[in-house]
Specification:
This protein has 482 residues and is an alpha/beta fold. Helix content is 38%, strand content 22%. It contains 16 helices and 21 strands. It has a six-stranded parallel beta sheet with strand order 2-1-3-4-5-6, sandwiched between helices. A five-stranded mixed barrel has the order 17-18-19-21-20. A three-stranded parallel beta sheet has the order 7-10-13, with helices on both faces. The structure holds S-adenosyl-L-homocysteine (SAH) and FE3-S4 cluster (F3S).
Length: 482
């Protein structure tokens, strides 16, 4: 292991030396899910080796890359607006600037992008980032360039990400790519392709490297982390054909969590996202076994109605979901649970909506992300169902569950009042430069006076006050983790 770290260090100093000679400037920004932000760090790493340094200033950029999201129509509109902004900067102040579109919109729209948006020179899908050097050579010669080929193997496990806009404390580590679930509303299986898992050894090496560089918390990332399965590479569905040795040495998500927790016993470990149909109890048991795995599960359910769950091709019922939550709470009583919900899916009736409300009342999530249904071209829902719920009804249902969630978040936050919580300090509080802001293992934001503590410290905080989603308190000392 020593040797690998040494080699990594050598690799690192090599990159730093190359950086000195880097002259071209890259402006890169990301929209959408955490996976996009993580992918941009891979792209920055690839381009560092191509003579680029990152810049925050559009006006001096030689290359502008926007990592895009297709999950809802609104996300795509946001990107279109950004392209207008780049257009204006290019026209008025930076004519040499080239513009590339990365990620899910690139994959969804392909050559259409080059036709529709004259400003775009480069279109690169989520599995084609290693081809960027060749594509940029094309662009340098004045031609538009595109690669949107999806892969069954690419995991970028061999690329050490350049951490962008980092607080130096928390980092994302990607463990799977793609999704095989085919929820009928979701564009991800089309834009990110088949599900693949990354070699666990490269994951552990990244976790060790992050710890050695001062990071204190990682989030293992995947569209569907619980279906992680490594047996030497390849698609999960081909596991049936794996050899006996491959089967005996296969690593599933619970094994991977354990490997990470043991590799760095003081590193906080989070993961996202879990799909209820794939979350197994051995994962929950592993969480219970290791103190450094945070007691929080993001467990999107999308709807509380069995009929709608079926239409969505979510492969569990409301009752199975509730049984899973009960089991989680039995094994980890203080486990925070959060949700994603969609209101206004085609054919959703008032009664279906009431089922969502009653499910929320039963579970009382710590927090959640709630959306109105947005029809996505090419998905099964778009092909088979009419988007028949009026926008006003969607908005009314959304407002209702957002308000309910706020009520529940308030309850869950207040439950932690007058207790001692462990906080990892991430940054200065937005509201006060004399306070730190960090999170508890349950993911509750906590602010407290700075005193002599520093970013990256694990601190025990006595909570004295709160808002709906934020705890306020005073530090009473370093936690034993420090
Ligand atoms: N497994 C993924 C989920 C991706 S999408 C993950 O890792 O986060 C994130 C959330 O967006 C989903 O859980 C769903 O609630 C929402 N979403 C996806 N497609 C949508 C659509 N067509 N309209 C509205 N919301 C959508
Ligand atoms: Fe999308 Fe369902 Fe996969 S929400 S990312 S198809 S688990």
């Amino acid at each position: 292991m020593e040797k690998i770290i040494d080699e990594n260090k050598q690799g690192e100093s090599l990159i730093l030396e190359q950086k000195k000679e880097n002259t071209r400037k890259l402006f890169i920004e990301s929209y959408g899910c955490a996976m996009n932000f993580s992918d941009s760090e891979i792209v920055a790493s690839i381009l560092t080796n191509q003579g680029f340094n990152t810049t925050q200033n559009l006006e001096e950029a030689d290359l502008v890359l926007v990592n895009t999201c297709s999950i809802r129509d609104k996300a795509e509109q946001t990107v279109r607006k950004r392209l207008e902004k780049y257009n204006a900067v290019k026209r008025d102040r930076n004519p040499k600037m080239k513009v590339g579109v990365l990620g899910c919109m690139a994959e969804r729209l392909k050559t259409k992008f080059l036709e529709e948006e004259k400003i775009v020179d480069l279109v690169v899908g989520p599995d084609a980032y290693k081809d960027l050097p060749n594509l940029l050579a094309e662009v340098d010669e004045g031609r538009d360039a595109i690669n949107v080929i999806l892969s069954k193997e690419e995991t970028y496990g061999d690329i050490s990400p350049v951490r962008l806009n980092s607080n130096g404390v928390t980092a994302f580590v990607s463990i799977t790519r793609g999704c095989d679930n085919m929820c009928t509303f979701c564009v991800v299986p089309f834009t990110r392709g088949r599900e693949r898992s990354r070699n666990p050894q490269s994951i552990i090496e990244e976790v060790n490297d992050l710890w050695n560089r001062g990071y204190k918390e990682i989030t293992l990332l995947g569209q569907n982390v619980d279906s992680y399965l490594w047996y030497g590479g390849g698609l999960k569905k081909d596991f049936v054909k794996a050899s006996d040795i491959q089967k005996a040495t296969a690593v599933n998500f619970s094994n991977l969590l354990e490997l990470c927790a043991k590799a760095q016993p003081k590193m906080r470990i989070r993961f996202s996202t879990s799909n209820p149909q794939d979350l197994t109890l051995d994962v929950v048991e592993t969480m219970a076994k290791y103190n450094n795995i945070c007691n929080h599960i993001h467990l999107p359910v999308q709807s509380g109605s069995n009929r709608i769950l079926k239409e969505m091709n979510r492969l569990h019922t409301r009752e199975e979901y509730i049984a899973l939550i009960d089991k989680i709470r039995e094994i980890i009583p203080n486990c925070a649970i959060s949700q994603d919900m969609i209101v206004g899916f085609p054919t959703e009736t008032e009664n279906d909506h009431k089922d969502t409300v009653s499910l929320m009342n039963h579970v009382k999530y710590h927090f959640g992300y709630m959306f109105t249904y947005s029809e996505r071209p090419g998905t099964m829902a778009e092909r088979k169902l009419e988007d028949d719920i009026p926008e006003t009804v969607k908005k009314k249902r959304l407002a209702e569950i957002v308000e309910l969630q706020q009520k529940h978040s308030g309850i869950k936050t207040r439950e932690q009042l007058n207790t001692i919580v462990e906080v990892l300090i991430e940054k200065e509080s937005k509201k006060s430069d004399t306070h730190w802001s960090g999170r508890t293992p349950q993911n509750t934001v906590t602010v407290f006076p700075k005193e002599h503590y520093n970013i990256g410290d694990f601190v025990n905080v006595k909570t004295t006050n709160c808002t709906t989603a934020t705890l306020i308190g005073e530090a009473i000392g370093y936690s034993e983790n420090n």
